Amino acid sequence: MYKSKNQITKKVKYGKLKIYIIISILILALMFILVFKTNFFSIDEIIVKNNNEVSRDVIIAYSGIQLHNNIFKIKLSEITKKIEKNPYIKTAKVSRKLPNKIVIEVIERKRLAAIFYMGIYFIIDDEGYVLETKNKVKDVVVIEGFEINRFSEGEKIDLSGNEDLRKVLTLCSLIQKSNIDIKPKIYYNNGNINITIEDKLKVKFGNGENIDYKFKAFLSILKYLKSKDIYTGVIDISTNGYPVYRPFDE
């Protein structure tokens, strides 16, 4: 029976299509077996980057990732949320490194100061987020005088004088960046900010306005006093005028 050229062409195309479909099904089946039925995509390493405050083991524990699980069965967004529940973790980024590695990159919150209130030290960062609470602290600036209304680890602290706290935290950052070898204490009282060094030298910063300028003036005076072996007295830079130093007995 005679078949037209058009019929033959259609038959060839149909035959090719069937072959393509069969090959595609085979490829998908092989991919499914490779992904879900073999260990090729089984997690064998978790890489943690940029962590200094929080250990690798703690971050992995927060993530909930288990070695030897299939790399495609974990939800990256859920893992990220779990890691960011740690108060010291500001942000986290979780990614797959095929075929069998998970990479966790974090940006941490850094300890800046400790607010002392009712016998407890509230460790906070430069934004006022509570990182943890302790009964004792060292190597950190201690702040006294604020009344805490509410707190939760990993959240911003709520206290009386939130705007003044911002000024105090700026002062803490300046202290941290300076080369002062002894951590001073900061006292807040009715809007006024004072610091003491070893309970011997008192510095009055007033209401905290122009804190950068005042801190530079304080450092200059402190350097001069040390050159004269003077370690006690009062440095008054509470106004925008000239700073004043006087011994305690005056």
UniProtKB/TrEMBL annotation:
Source organism of this protein record: Caminicella sporogenes DSM 14501
Chief localisation class: membrane
Domain of life: Bacteria
GO biological process, one term: cell division
Keyword annotations from UniProtKB, A to Z: Cell cycle, Cell division, Cell membrane, Membrane, Transmembrane, Transmembrane helix
Signal keyword on record: no
Coiled-coil stretches noted in the UniProt entry, renumbered to this chain: none
Subcellular localization(s) per the UniProt record: Membrane
Protein's name according to its UniProt entry: Cell division protein FtsQ
Transmembrane segments: 20-41
Limits of the POTRA domain: 41-109
Pfam families found in the cross-reference section: FtsQ_DivIB_C (PF03799), POTRA_1 (PF08478)
One Gene Ontology CC term in the entry: plasma membrane
